[in-house]
Amino acid sequence: MTVFQSPPHLQSELPKPAVYRPWLGGKYDVKPGLGPITRELGNGNADRRLIQLDTQFPAYRAAKLRTLAPLERPFYVCIDPQFAGINTEVQRRLAAQAAHEYPLRFSMDGSTLKTAEGQAHRLDGSPTTWDALVGHMQEDVAVVQLQPDGLEATTFLHLCSPNHWDPVEKVGRPFTAVHAPVAGIESVNKAAPQIVKLMVNATEPLVRFAWGLATDDTLNHHPSQPPGRDWTLPPFAAFVRYERQVIWGQPDLNASLFFIRTYFEDVLTLPDREPEAAAKLAAAIRTMTPESRVYKGVAGVADELADWFDGR
């Protein structure tokens, strides 16, 4: 079974969450920003794992179970017919990777996946097994497939933590259509054929980060859910919501697995705790274009937020 040789976690207790601050560069931009998973980002072995389990797992697990209830699941788990040909093989490869990275929480017995909760699931591509597998991760998972005609499509989404977008609208669509609503994405979309080819061939996984500001630390912001607290209404709160996105190519399947791990950092008191870091966040907010401010939900308050983080 194909696995990426990332460091396994061999302790029964899960570690504290990894910490990333993609805004410390002091600039907001929309670029691929891809780097090898082997680069050191300050979190030791966690940086080199495709799957990152930590002490926040119970909260992520509970949030996933709510979205995977029978009436909710179709809004969060979407499969295009094109995925059928590789469904079972992708599931087996992801299960093998999980068992490699967390052998005390996942194990393989032939074509059966066993979880730490004592559940056993046949690796046959079934929805039940997908929910058991991805439902025991803190990441969401997507699959992009390259078609014989050279076009690509997002054919699988197991996405329980959408950030104000609808997975149903993305499944079966190409890279450019999936990302079209993102402000400032035009130059990236122009390079879409090269990016998709890179994704499919990235057998050594690649990592990138995306971030924005939020008034809460709610994982699920599907458009059907309550929109969240308004910036101008008390009680005031401010979080950086960011995603660690890992791309793992499967060239023999003409496909790529895409992992999305959502993180939050409470930054309301950052000016008092770390004024230099707060100033970097303020600078990054000020570089957001008007379009990006609208897309990120901070139009009308971005300058005030930047002043707050600057301590003005």
Largest sheet: 7 strands, antiparallel
Q: Which word captures the global form?
A: globular
State the end-to-end distance.
Answer: 56 Å
Tell me the strand order in the biggest sheet: 1-8-9-10-6-7-2
Give the uncertain stretches in residue-range form. Answer: none
Strand elements, count: 10
Q: Portion of residues in helices?
A: 25-40%
As a whole number of angstroms, the C-alpha radius of gyration is: 19 Å
- Helix- and strand-based class? alpha+beta
What series of H and E elements makes up the topology? Answer: EHEHEEEHEEHHHEEEHHHH
Strand content: 15-25%
Mean pLDDT: 93
Oligomer: single chain
Helix count equals 10
Entry keywords:
312 residues, alpha+beta, 7-stranded antiparallel β-sheet, 3-stranded antiparallel β-sheet, 10 helices, 10 strands, 27% helix, globular
What does this 3D model show about the protein?
The protein is an alpha+beta fold and 312 residues long. Helices cover 27% and strands 21% of the residues. It contains ten helices and ten strands. It has a seven-stranded antiparallel sheet with strand order 1-8-9-10-6-7-2. The protein has a three-stranded antiparallel sheet with strand order 3-4-5, with helices on one face. The model has no long low-confidence stretch (mean pLDDT 93).
